[in-house]
Amino acid sequence: MRSSKYLTVMRMGRMPRVSIRRLFLYAVYTLVGGSLLMLALHAQQPHQLWLRVLPESAQQGSALQQLDLQNPLIKYHDEDDLVDSSTDAENVTSAFRHQGTYPWYIEDGGYRPAPRDPQQPSGAAAADAWPNVNAGDRIEQQLMMGPVGDAPLKTIYLPNGISSWQVKRGRQLFHEQKCPVDRCSITGRREDAPKADAIMFKDFFSLPAHKRPASQIWIMYMLECPLHTQFIHDKNIFNWTATYRRDSELVTPYEKWVYYDRRIRRKPATRNFASGKSKKVAWFVSNCGAKNNRLEYANALQKHIDVDIYGNCGTKTCPRHSGDHCLDVLSKDYKFYLAFENSNCRDYITEKFFVNGLGTNVLPIVMGAPRVDYEKHAPEHSFIHVDDFGTPKELADYLHLLNANDTLYNEYFEWKETGQFINTYFFCRLCAMLHQAPSVQPRSYADFNDWWRGGVNCIRGSWRHYEQQERERKRRKKKKKHQLLLLAQDQVKSSVSNH
Question: I need a surface site. Which of 34, 154, 199, 356 has the fewest CB within 10 A?
Answer without folding.
Answer: 34
